[in-house]
# Entry
Amino acid sequence: MANHKSALKRHKQSLLQQSRNRANRTRVKNVVKAVNAALAENNLENARTNLVSATSVLAKAAHKGAIHWKKAARKISRMTRAINAAAKKAQ
# Structure
């Protein structure tokens, strides 16, 4: 355990940031799951609206450093491609 005042403060700050990052990563998982669930049900309108919110959540998590920015871009890209493929197949 830290003994210096500054080290104690850094430890406390790291715990707060750890809990924020965990919350952001959980939020990311939930919005991705919502898009995938809508795709599984062939509900394209719901999938598109969920994709808009998922894009926002992923971008914010990447900006805050909770996830890597390339991981956020990859997830957005894959969800968009899946929705576009489902829309093309539905025509």
